[in-house]
Design goal:
The protein is 64% helix and 10% strand. The chain is mostly helical and 305 residues long. It folds into 2 domains: 207 residues, Cation efflux protein transmembrane domain (Alpha-lytic protease prodomain-like), CATH 1.20.1510.10; 78 residues, Alpha-Beta Plaits, CATH 3.30.70. A 3-stranded mixed sheet has the order 1-2-3. β1 and β2 form a beta hairpin.
């Protein structure tokens, strides 16, 4: 009997979300500082595209704030003794919250845009162009900050996608402002608002699928379960592999459990070390709990599920 000792709690401060927390903090300050400006000018100009972008800015503020809180929770040590895997999943819940916020804002804006069709609203194009350009600059700065951590942390990725969507919104505001100024047709403002909403929903659904996969304890996307089983079965001294489970605790933290059946005289210590090395080096699984058992062991038969 044996297990891997990469429990990870001692490395909380170095995990993906915690490592990029400063990026979230700077992006939060930038977005929160600009949100009030965009909301005020959106109301003054009467532009739905500008208001939709302000709505996405508000979603950014909420999402980035939740992400910051989640990274703080995820990196603090457990003092209760009850959270045996720590609080890393807080980041995944924050990503799920980001998905809900993105979808909610997008649905609201699209609904408002559809209601406006046919109305004779007046829209001032100059504030749209000025504020849209400033918003674009702020969003690009935040996007550059978060991009480095988006590939490593699902939490940072949720915030990054929010900012990407808002960057597209700022571009849309500028385009709508140019078209309204050139043609005098307010319809362009409405069309751009709908396009922004649809874009946000598409990105939110993609992120939502990743969140569901983690919370549902699916095998990681980049890990082939059949390949893992085959590699463990090829370890010298292993006759069979069963009860193999693979899942993601949080971004960059893959976990595995498995039972390895060995010949009666096989040195279990060596089998354990070789199996852990295979999981770590070939499949990126740093935390594995492995049960090494003799071929005549029948205890697993008692498990009903």
């Amino acid at each position: 009997m044996g297990h891997g000792h990469g429990h990870g709690h001692a490395h909380a401060a170095g995990h993906a979300g915690g490592k990029h927390r400063w990026r979230l903090a700077v992006a939060f300050a930038l977005i929160a500082g600009f949100f009030g400006v965009e909301l005020a000018y959106g109301l003054l100009s009467g532009s739905l595209a500008l208001l939709s972008d302000a709505g996405h800015m508000a979603a950014d503020v909420v999402t980035l704030g939740a992400a910051l809180v989640a990274t703080r929770i995820a990196t603090r040590p457990d003092t209760t003794g009850q959270r045996t895997y720590g609080s890393y999943r807080a980041e995944v819940f924050a990503s799920g919250f980001a998905v809900l916020v993105m979808v909610g804002v997008a649905v609201y804006i699209v609904a408002e845009a559809l209601i406006r069709i046919g109305d004779h609203a007046e829209v001032s194009s100059t504030p749209m162009l000025v504020v849209g350009a400033l918003g674009l600059a702020v969003n690009i700065a935040a996007m550059v900050l978060l991009r480095a951590g988006a590939s490593e942390s699902l939490n940072v990725k949720g915030a990054y996608l929010e900012v990407v969507a808002d960057t597209a919104g700022s571009v849309g505001v500028i385009v709508a402002g140019v078209l309204v100024a050139a043609t005098g047709q307010v319809l362009f403002d409405t069309v751009v608002a709908i396009a922004i909403g649809v874009f946000v929903v598409v990105r939110a659904v993609a992120l939502g699928r990743q969140v569901v996969a983690v919370l549902g304890q699916h095998a990681p996307e980049d890990v082939n379960v059949g390949r893992v089983a085959a590699d463990l079965g090829a370890v010298d001294g292993v006759q069979d592999v069963h009860d193999l489970h693979l899942w993601t605790l949080t971004s960059g933290m893959h976990v595995a459990t498995a039972h390895l059946v060995t010949a009666d005289q096989t040195a279990t210590h060596g089998v354990l070390d070789r199996a852990l090395q295979v999981l770590r080096e070939r499949h990126g699984v740093a935390h594995a709990t492995l049960q090494v058992e003799p071929a005549d062991h029948t205890g697993c038969d008692a498990v009903s599920w």
